[in-house]
Specification:
TIM Barrel, 8 strands, alpha/beta, Sugar phosphate isomerase/epimerase, eight-stranded parallel β-barrel, 11 helices, 267 residues
Amino acid sequence: MDKKFSLAHLTVLGCAPPEMIYIAAMTGYDYVGIRPIFMGLPNEPDYDLSKNKAMFRATKRAILETGVKVNDIELAKICEEMDFEKYERCFETAAELGAKHVLSSIWTPDKAFYMESFSRVCEIARKYDLSVELEFVTWANVKNLSEALEVIETVKAPNSGIMVDTLHFNRSRVQIEALKKVPKEYFHFLHLCDGPAEIPTTKEGLIHTGRDERLYVGEGGIDIKSIVEAMPEVLYTLELPHIARVRELGYAEHARRCLQSAKDYLG
């Protein structure tokens, strides 16, 4: 089976969804993962397509003109200030664009709250035939594979899954044997990127690499091959933000190099 690749929005975050779709088509991707759930983070653009109807129409036109599909949207963040009505509005819009998955992560230590909230997000997403993929993030509150599994197996939502990011997998020190034991049906796509072999010891260090300086696949010290081989064949999403390289190369060339390095590495 031919490997399929998706371009994650964080890789080209300065590009609105229509532009990133054209870049994805031009550089050889099959899918994109877009970020229309605005979280109000510093310097992060608001791409809420449920409110910006002109941008929604332009996104739909880009999909039709290029054949590039939307795989997923993000981020249905589980936290005290989450807005379920906003999530539903964004889920409905995503379904209109053909998306199949919603990416989620957990940012509160209140276990009872996050279990209940994740269950509700899954219920809302199910109305739009969307699955909810829980990502464990090393500086979040659910930060490793076992914690993510606990959520999935407690909530038991039929449309829930786990999304592995190779950077977070490495930095949470998950063992490959643990990954092999996870039911294969939990996996639908994988975030690919590389990073330095040395794992930062501070939250600030973890965030810096995760948001600003990920490496091309095969360039760093992560054993990506073992992670890929421990999982079923899924869609490979290149999430590889690197601020300095974008300044030097531009978004399109950076996106092209992300994809080419991954293809070279995976053979």
